[in-house]
Amino acid sequence: MISCCSYEQVGLKMFLGVTATVGNWNAEGTTCSLILEDNPLVDFVELPDTCQGLYYCNILSGVIRGALEMVSMKTEVTWIRDMLRGDDAFELQLKLLKQVPEEYPYKDDE
């Protein structure tokens, strides 16, 4: 299960400057939605009609996936809704693929 209730609020605000809420958990507790309340990456951005298929803020999904890998969680992060594409919110879906056991390159008892 991904446990990120209060930590995601502090971490996202501290490192990315955004606030978010977590919701839409599945029954197994392995998939949730991260709804961004604000997104500073899009303050002065308008996508032309020729670029409507572009996920302009896709770097955020990579940042979140990379941060979760650093704490031994293999995840898949995809965009569900994007205001630049005409949706009413910015929403990412986080899916836990597997919990990777931590490996230490040294022995503790030496």
Automatic annotation (TrEMBL):
Cited Pfam families: TRAPP (PF04051)
PANTHER family: TRAFFICKING PROTEIN PARTICLE COMPLEX SUBUNIT 3
Name assigned to this protein: Trafficking protein particle complex subunit 3
One GO cellular component, as annotated: Golgi apparatus
Signal peptide feature range: none
Localisation per UniProt entry: Endoplasmic reticulum; Golgi apparatus, cis-Golgi network
InterPro entries (alphabetical): Bet3, NO_sig/Golgi_transp_ligand-bd, TRAPP_component
Taxonomic source organism: Solanum verrucosum
An annotated GO BP: Golgi vesicle transport
Source species taxonomy: Eukaryota, Viridiplantae, Streptophyta, Embryophyta, Tracheophyta
Keyword entries, A-Z: Endoplasmic reticulum, ER-Golgi transport, Golgi apparatus, Transport
Family designation: Belongs to the TRAPP small subunits family. BET3 subfamily.
CDD domains per UniProt: TRAPPC3_bet3
Superkingdom as given in the UniProt entry: Eukaryota
